[in-house]
Amino acid sequence: MTASSRRILRLSGADTHSFLQGLITNDITRLDAGLVYAALLTPQGKYIADFFLKADGDGVLLDADAEQADMLAQRLTMYKLRADVTIAQTDLHLHRGTGPAPADALADPRHPDLGWRAYRDAPQEDDATDWDTLYVAHLIPQSGVELTPDSFILEMGFERLNGVDFRKGCYVGQEVTARMKHKTELRKGLAKVQITGPAPTGTDITSEGKSAGTLLTRAGDEALAYLRFDRATGEMKADDATLKRIP
């Protein structure tokens, strides 16, 4: 996923912060400290979209996957009812990198090795970072690959990625998310695997002939996989590839 595959929306109006606080998985007051990573969920606690938020004067920038931006704007518009909130497209472009952070950049809150993000008037042309390798190394899910409409964010590691706050109060999908946190042990989730041999993204993973998960982003001889943990204890297969979970 390149920086050009992102779109930047801007939310403004007197009710912007309270509006977002009642919808998203993270605490909007964290904007005072930098970028906020969060998601919008269904009432059943399933993933709709993930995004970054940045304070922007009296408004908030929302950095979203380009394929989700229109849908996300429509969802937010549906929720705002009579709230004083305006949702607009911008002409800003995402810039990102892993070297020294420029003066206008903020740290990616998901993991220190993911570097910085900045928002500028012109497209980025100089980023040669191998992002997939970083995503696999640090178990970072991506929208449309690991993150799908069937995803529960705790199975995708959102607590580890600073994408959910359990003290902020109610938001859409909060009850299910809190129940998964406090009352259940996760039996499925995102994991890293060692992989030998060819298999495309989306291939079913099996263990002793039983379904064990799905192969996702790959980088060299390692990959991300959505696994059923009780069946991912030994050698697994995905098409012509052999896999083993990395602890």
List the helices and strands and how they pair.
Layout: E1 6-12, H1 16-21, E2 36-41, E3 47-56, E4 59-65, H2 66-80, E5 86-89, E6 93-97, E7 106-107, E8 116-120, H3 131-137, H4 174-183, E9 188-196, E10 204-207, E11 210-219, E12 222-228, E13 236-238, E14 241-246
Features:
single chain; 247 residues; alpha+beta; Gyrase A, domain 2; Elongation Factor Tu (Ef-tu), domain 3; 6-stranded antiparallel sheet; 14 strands
Please describe what this structure looks like.
- The protein is globular.
- It has a 6-stranded antiparallel β-sheet.
- The protein has 4 helices and 14 strands.
- It is α+β, with helices and mostly antiparallel strands.
- It folds into 2 domains: 3-183, Gyrase A, domain 2 (2-Layer Sandwich); 188-246, Beta Barrel (Elongation Factor Tu (Ef-tu), domain 3), CATH 2.40.30.
Radius of gyration in whole Å, from Cα? 19 Å
CATH architecture of the largest domain: 2-Layer Sandwich
Poorly predicted runs are: none
The side-by-side strand order for the widest beta sheet comes to 10-11-12-9-14-13
Look at the helices and sheets and give the structural class: alpha+beta
**The named CATH superfamily of the largest domain:** Probable tRNA modification gtpase trme, domain 1
How many domains make up the coordinates?
2
Order of helices and strands: EHEEEHEEEEHHEEEEEE
